[in-house]
Write a structure and sequence with these properties.
434 Repressor (Amino-terminal Domain), 2 domains, 72% helix, elongated
């Protein structure tokens, strides 16, 4: 399961649970795929941690293995993680990046339209950037 690509812990936990349940029943990946009505490659990708399961696949896994809410709970946690493990160190900088992107879009609009917007933007955006740096 650990694949060296920094996959989320929840994805690994889902995969470990699926492998354990499949092995407990003595099923192959092909048999599991047939029971879940998905392809064998889908099962292989989920078990290797390469692919996250969909909500429908989590529901079907709970039905097939007789584990109420187990796989669905793992899948919901996966969706609740806003950033992958590799991106988490950059999460604090995301707000500043969003603001800069907004600034560049609005600035280009202001430059293309003469009038009131040109006068307001230069005062407002730098104020937001200063506030973000102080709180940052």
């Amino acid at each position: 399961m650990p694949n060296g690509r920094g996959e989320d812990d929840e994805r690994s936990m889902f995969a470990a649970e699926m492998i354990a349940m499949r092995n407990q029943r003595g099923w192959t990946q092909e048999e599991t795929a047939a029971h879940m009505l998905v392809s064998t490659s889908t099962i292989a990708n989920i078990e290797s941690g390469y692919r996250a399961p969909t909500p429908a696949q989590a529901i079907k896994a709970d039905e097939v293995f007789g584990t109420p809410e187990t796989f669905q709970r793992h899948e919901r946690r996966m969706r609740g993680i806003p950033f992958s493990v590799g991106f988490r160190p950059f999460q604090p900088h995301e707000a500043a990046a969003r603001l800069l992107k907004m600034f560049s879009i609005r600035w280009s609009l202001a430059c293309s339209r003469p009038g009131r917007m040109q006068r307001r933007l230069p005062r407002r955006i730098p104020r937001q950037l200063r506030r973000l740096r102080r709180n940052g």
